[in-house]
From TrEMBL:
It comes from the Bacteria. Residues 20-47 form a coiled coil. It comes from Henriciella pelagia. This is Uncharacterized protein. InterPro entries: Flag_assembly_chemotaxis_eff. Keywords: Coiled coil.
C-alpha cells in the first residue's frame, strides 16, 4: 500500500475530530433533553400525588378519576410523558453509539497514520 500523504492524513484527522466533536455535542443535547423530559414527568407525578397525599398513587389515581376527572387527564399526560422519556432514552443510546464509532474512527486513523510513518 502506498503511504498516506501528510496533507491527506491531516485532513482526515481534522474531519474525524469534527465528527467526534459533533457526536459529543449531540450526546450532550440528548442528555439535556432527557433530563428535561424526566423533570416534566416527575412534576406530573408529583401533581398526581399531591391530589391525594394520604393514599398510594394507584389507588389515589383511580379514586380521583372517578370523582373529578382531573386524575384521568394527569394519568394520560403521565403516560404520554413516559413515552417521550422512552424516546429520549432511545435517542441518547443512538447518540452514544455514534460517539463510540467516532472514537473508534479516530483511534483507527491514529493507528494508520502512526504505522505509516
Amino acid at each position: 500500500m502506498a503511504a498516506m500523504k501528510p496533507r491527506t492524513a491531516h485532513t482526515l484527522t481534522r474531519l474525524v475530530a469534527l465528527r467526534r466533536q459533533n457526536a459529543e455535542q449531540a450526546l450532550g443535547q440528548a442528555r439535556i433533553s432527557l433530563d428535561e423530559e424526566k423533570a416534566k414527568l416527575a412534576a406530573l407525578q408529583a401533581e398526581l400525588r399531591s391530589a391525594a397525599p394520604d393514599c398510594e398513587q394507584d389507588y389515589a389515581a383511580l379514586s380521583l378519576s372517578d370523582r373529578f376527572g382531573n386524575s384521568t387527564r394527569l394519568l394520560g399526560q403521565i403516560e404520554a410523558q413516559k413515552s417521550v422519556v422512552a424516546l429520549c432514552e432511545e435517542t441518547l443510546a443512538i447518540r452514544r453509539k455514534h460517539l463510540k464509532r467516532a472514537f473508534g474512527s479516530e483511534q483507527s486513523l491514529k493507528d494508520i497514520v502512526s504505522s505509516r510513518k
